[in-house]
Amino acid sequence: SIARMSLFLNYFTMMLLKECLVVQGQRQHVPTWLAVLPVTVILTRCVSLSWPAYHRVLSLSSKKVRDELVNQVTRMLACYRKHCAQATAHGGQMVMPQFLKVMPLFVNCLRKSKVLLEGPDAPIDERAYLRHVVMSMDIAETNVFFYPRLVPIHDLNGSQVSLPRAARCSRRWLSAKGVYLLEDGLSLLLWIGMDTPTEWIQNVFGLPSFSTVDCGVGALPVLDNALSRQIRSLIARVRKERPRFLKLLIVKQTGDAERQFQQYLVEDKNPSGGASYADFLSHIHISIQRSIK
Predict the structure, then answer these.
(1) DSSP letter at 195?
(2) 192 close to 175: Cβ distance less than 8 angstroms
(3) What is the mean pLDDT of residues 101-113?
(4) 21 C-beta neighbours (distance < 10 Å), count
(5) Which helix (H) or strand (E) holds 258?
(6) What are the residues facing 235 on neighbouring strands?
(7) What is the rounded distance in angstroms from the CA atom of residue 221 to the CA atom of residue 231?
(8) Which of 163-170's residues contact partners 24+ apart within 8 Å by CB, and which partners?
(9) What whole-number percentage of the chain has pLDDT above 70?
(10) Sign of the CA dihedral 3, 5, 9, 11?
(11) pLDDT (tens digit per residue) in 23-67
């Protein structure tokens, strides 16, 4: 069933690109409906890359599988650049259709996942477990696993009901004065900046200062104030969205557990060596230019 799904989605993507191919020597304008494809279609296409990759890692080296992923996204974008992009596009410009802009980001996250990127932080038994779990996830779970949800919670006022808008998974978006809740469907982490206001620490942890907060797996104390109730309610809400119970790991900026937190910042360079999103885009751009010459 995985093979059939992957085949269908590959065919579907190629049919989208076929709409833009050169006809009688004339470049065709990109159909407007390509720019408004449902997000679920785009994400389903991205997820379809993970299943074959995780299957092939049983018979090929992880490096070989990572290289195949790069070749797939390069061929797809090179085809678009050569046959579909506007004639006015500059030769050195990175050109991507709107409906495929998420593809390089997802592929880089997939390449840096513990299953495909060997390292001291990914023992073989954990990699085998994650492979098994991810291949049984649905689309929504898979997407949050590869691109975790990073939610700033330091500006909550005690009355907000909905989750704040998620931030991009990069240290550039972290503030030393902020507190962030991160989850990927399997893990739940609370990152506390070193300059977090003392009042926030007191209301949520019942402790006098940042330095007195203990790191590690734990639970927030039950305190009788609006902010404490709201933070605990948000954590309970996130847990309810997932089929597995998420233990809370408390992480302090510059603390011992921060390296573990950094592994989830998928747009940055991975501590085990995976490329940042910016570096990966640059690599893809160079590969596209070489392939169309």
Answers:
(1) T
(2) no
(3) 89
(4) 13
(5) helix 258-262
(6) none
(7) 11
(8) 163/234, 163/237, 163/238, 168/267, 169/264, 169/265, 169/266, 169/267, 169/268, 170/265, 170/267, 170/268, 170/277
(9) 78
(10) positive
(11) 434 444 444 444 444 455 556 667 778 888 999 999 999 999 999
